[in-house]
Amino acid sequence: MDPLVFLVLCLSCLLLLSLWKQNSGKGNLPPGPTPLPVIGNILQLDLKNISKSLTQLSKVYGPVFTVYFGMKPTVVLHGYEAVKEALIDLAEDFSGRGSLPLSEKVNKGYGILFSNGKTWKEMRRFSLMTLRNFGMGKRSIEDRVQEEARCLVEELRKTNASPCDPTFILGCAPCNVICSIIFQNRFNYTDQDFLNLLEKFNENLRLFSSPWIQVCNNFPAVIDYLPGSHNTIVKNFADIKTYVLEKVKEHQASLDINNPRDFIDCFLIKMEQEKHNPQLEFTFENLITTVTDLFGAGTETTSTTLRYALLLLLKHPEVTAKVQEEIDRVIGRHRSPCMQDRSHMPYTDAVVHEAQRYIDLIPSDLPHSVTRDIKFRNYLIPKGTTVIPLLTSLLNDDKEFPKPEVFDPGHFLDESGNFKKSDYFMPFSAGKRMCVGEGLARMELFLFLTTILQNFTLKSLVDPKDIDTTPVCSGFGQVPPSYQLCFIPV
């Protein structure tokens, strides 16, 4: 070997080891598997199912341990006690957003989902207040969901009981609800722009859950210098933001500051009120990104849960029959389901909760980070360290949910058949970073599913026992397999 090449290699190794030692020496982090220089523990993790790998490591290192994704340490929290202590008892200290390089490239620190500090606090506070003012959790938003449920039923009738893939039809309903809040208007289910947007959201969830994107987020240099599906995600978000920008311009042209019509109007009015603030957070960039965050989060997670829930109901026709019996008894056939019905429908409520638990949609939550140097269980976690609360460890806790691998509504019913709450049920996360739209999502899941089952019998194209409910991707999210079914009018 050329002596010069050998020298460069030696110096490079020494530099990397020095950086490694410097990076890993901060604080008194929890124990974990020994990392390799540069690549960390990546070889000890299954990129097709990282949450499962982390669960296996918890059996060796306990409920709080450290893994290295590349050169960055990440503290993993496994089990109810550890997650509750961090996200609820020490909510402020664990309220930072952890590193997710691809999302940072897309959002650039703006919006709600991937922002930190003052930006995050201002955008979250404003969004919660505005969503409440437009009826989230109130009767007015329930009216919108009920109306959209009726539109969904009419669209499903058009399938004429023929086999269909429900992906886009089920995506349209929750998307239209959030559109009515953000943009004031809803879309026709055959609108091509609408379908294109849904396809981009759907594709992004699928790609975000792929092994390649796990590599990109662990080694961010890949994002800038190599081709791959990460570029598709970036382009999809750019297209969605372009669409949002067009809507914002339309709103600017017709804005009446005394009569705000929707979320965008409220933000534009706030921008005008705050324009002389030297620490201005109400900027065009934050408007576009916040609307995109709400648009995406209010569409894809709920529609994927609906799609997965119908697959589970096809797999378990005995469960579907019990739900429909409860619908007939409590609601009947001649009025729309409403949220007041839920307290009289413990079995249906249990089925909705069990579907969310079993689906385990976002098993590792979005990454958190600590906002200051903090002592946690006799460990010292330095400010800015990424923290992963393994929500899957709560939803699959076998002491709280006997046989967690089985879809069983009994997990949420007591011996008398009454609905039974569980502190372990955290599909929307918990604490300061819990989902802004949790109330809306819960309402949509209950009203859409009960309205569908009130009006249709679900018919599988294969024997129920042959239906495979295993997700096709298990990365950022659990993506259900594609399937077809028939909606037979009752």
Automatic annotation (TrEMBL):
For this UniProt record, the keywords arranged alphabetically read as follows: Endoplasmic reticulum, Heme, Iron, Membrane, Metal-binding, Microsome, Monooxygenase, Oxidoreductase, Signal
Kindly give the CDD domains that the UniProt entry links to this protein.
CYP2C-like (cd20665)
* GO terms for biological process, alphabetical: organic acid metabolic process; xenobiotic metabolic process
Species this protein is from:
Hipposideros armiger
Cofactor entry = heme
What's the source species' lineage?
Answer: Eukaryota, Metazoa, Chordata, Craniata, Vertebrata
EC assignment: the record states: 1.14.14.1
Q: Does the keyword Signal apply?
A: yes
Its protein name is: unspecific monooxygenase
Query: Which Gene Ontology terms cover its molecular function?
Result: heme binding; iron ion binding; oxidoreductase activity, acting on paired donors, with incorporation or reduction of molecular oxygen, reduced flavin or flavoprotein as one donor, and incorporation of one atom of oxygen
What compartments host this protein?
Answer: Endoplasmic reticulum membrane; Microsome membrane
Q: What is its main location?
A: endoplasmic reticulum
Q: Which Gene3D superfamilies match?
A: Cytochrome P450
An annotated GO cellular component: endoplasmic reticulum membrane
Instruction: Quote the InterPro entries the UniProt record gives.
Output: Cyt_P450 (IPR001128), Cyt_P450_CS (IPR017972), Cyt_P450_E_grp-I (IPR002401), Cyt_P450_sf (IPR036396), Cytochrome_P450_fam2 (IPR050182)
Q: Which gene encodes it?
A: LOC109380970
